[in-house]
Amino acid sequence: MSDETLNTLPADEENAAAENSSALPSAVEEEETAALAQAEEEQPEEEAQPLDPNALLEVRHLKKHFPAKKDFFGRPVSFLKAVDDVSFKIEKGTTLGIVGESGCGKTTLGRTILRLQPATDGEVYFDGVDINKLNTKQMNALRPQMQIIFQDPYSSLSPRMPVGEIIGEAVAQHKLVPKTELKEYVLEVMKSCGLPYHYYERYPHEFSGGQRQRICIATALALKPRFVVCDEPVSALDVSIQAQIINLLKDMQEKMGLTYIFISHDLSVVEHISNKVGVMYLGSLVEYASTGDIFDNPMHPYTEALFSAVPIPDPDRHSKRIILSGDIPSPINAPAGCKFHTRCNHCMDICREVAPKFKDYGNGHMVACHLYPQD
Description:
It is a single chain. The chain is α/β, with parallel strands linked by helices. Helix content is 34%, strand content 21%. The chain contains eleven helices and twelve strands. It has helices at 3-23, 27-42, 106-113, 136-142, 163-173, 182-192, 209-221, 239-256, 267-273, 291-296, 301-308; strands at residues 55-70, 76-91, 95-99, 121-126, 129-130, 146-149, 227-231, 259-263, 276-281, 284-290, 358-360, 366-368. The strands form two sheets. Strands 6-7-8-3-9-10-12-11 form an eight-stranded mixed β-sheet, with helices on both faces. Helix 5 (163-173) packs parallel to helix 7 and helix 7 packs parallel to helix 8 (239-256).
């Protein structure tokens, strides 16, 4: 073999490799393309509806699908549908409670709304602006108006920073107040959240669970937000401390005009703090209504079963517990038709084949169930 041939072989191989690499998209691009293509196929075309001028947040057909299995080339072949075609709106200064079993997608819904993780499809309109279309700079400018209170007050605080720095870090980053006034501003925020001044130099490990949750609330509210996602903020606390935190959230809502999404398993807490309630099952909303309507007249069989599990603090009254049969299906391979039909006591043939429409049956009470007219 000649020297010329030897010299040209590596170049040929390099060119071939370059052609092959350009022909195969990256795994990330494949995931996004496949997820979006699947979402577009599943989403029926409909005319764009005007935005509600009274709503601070309006979510339309929001989806978040995670790749569950990939082929040899790293391309996703199946998806976990954590949030699947969710739509609702929240008026300014009100609270929407989100309830449902563990793993139904409540936390993922909250994080996707805040764009802490990118949506697969759908729109999230905050004050009339679709935040999914904003670039990084525009989104960073909007961040102070949209905050989250995380579920675990133990892991959401940096153990290496004192309380004053934790609360003031984002305030300084977004330049909400001059540097010379930062400490005074943080102390005022701490006072409004029930934290004494001498906590400023202390570290998170020195506090109880309730005190840490107050620090988390102060960190979120220090940015003067308009909208806050409360991701089970009282689930890790004692009952007496829960009441204090709930009262604090309500007081701050009245003072600052805040709008909340309140995610919780505790239905009594949701009933106390929420103006409207949404019930999730396997990534989808099955019922959505005002708090009074949904607790007085639950229409979906899953909602009825969920509410029947709430204990009644009266020894002379006995509620009829509705026991659901079977296990929760996998969100990777959700049942055809109505997702709840495998556990529903009212299941009909149509439930196994056709997904019910999420319809308004009067007074804003929306339900997805074949027990009610679909036309």
